[in-house]
Amino acid sequence: MTNLSEVIRRLRNGACFNSNKELGTHRTTIRSLHSLAQAQDWLSPLIPLPDESIIQQRHYQAGKPNPKEKILSAYLDELKRWYMEEKKSFVVIHTLLSERLAEGVTISETTLRLRLVRSNLDSSKTIETFDFGCAPKLSKTVTREFCACDFIVRKENIFFLGASGAGKTHLAQAIGHEAARRGYDVYCERTAVILQQLNAARGDGTNEKK
User: From 16, 22, 50, 187, which residue has the greatest number of CB atoms within 10 Å?
Assistant: First the structure.
C-alpha cells in the first residue's frame, strides 16, 4: 500500500504531482491526494500531518463518487440541449430532471451545472486541481483572495502574466469556477475566438447582442 503521508511530505518539498516516478505512485492517486492535502492545508510545513491511517481514511472517503454529481453528469447532454437549443428556464429543466428520476438534485445544483455548461470552462481546471508545487512563486494567500471573488464586487480586473505553461489559464478558469459557485455568470474563451466572434457579429449586424 502506498505511504500517503510520505507522498504529502514530498509534495510539501516541492515535488510536482505530475512526477509519478519520483513519488512512486500512480499519477491519479497523486492528483487526488494533492487535492485532499490542499483542502486540509496539509501542504503547509507548519501544519503537522495526521496519522497515516487518518490520511488513508480521508483519501478513501474523498474518492467516493457523489451520487448527485453522477445523476447530473448522466443528463449533461440533455441539460445542454434544454438550455442551449430549447431555451428552457432553470425551473422547467429541474422539473424535467425530476421526471427522469433525478432524485436529490436541487434547483441550485441544477442552476450551477447549467451555469457551468454555458461558461465554457474546463471542468478539470479548478482550484482543487491546481498544482501550487509547480508554481512556487504564486502566493496562496492572494490566490485564495481571488477565489473569494471580492474583486468582482469591487468591479476590479485581474491580469495574469507569466511564461507559457506557468498555469495562467488553469488559475483563471479555477477562479471562474469559484465565481460560478457563488452565483456569478461566467464565460471563458480565448481572445482570438472572441475577436473572431465580434467581427462576425459586426458583419451580420448582431454585434449589439454580443
Answer: 16
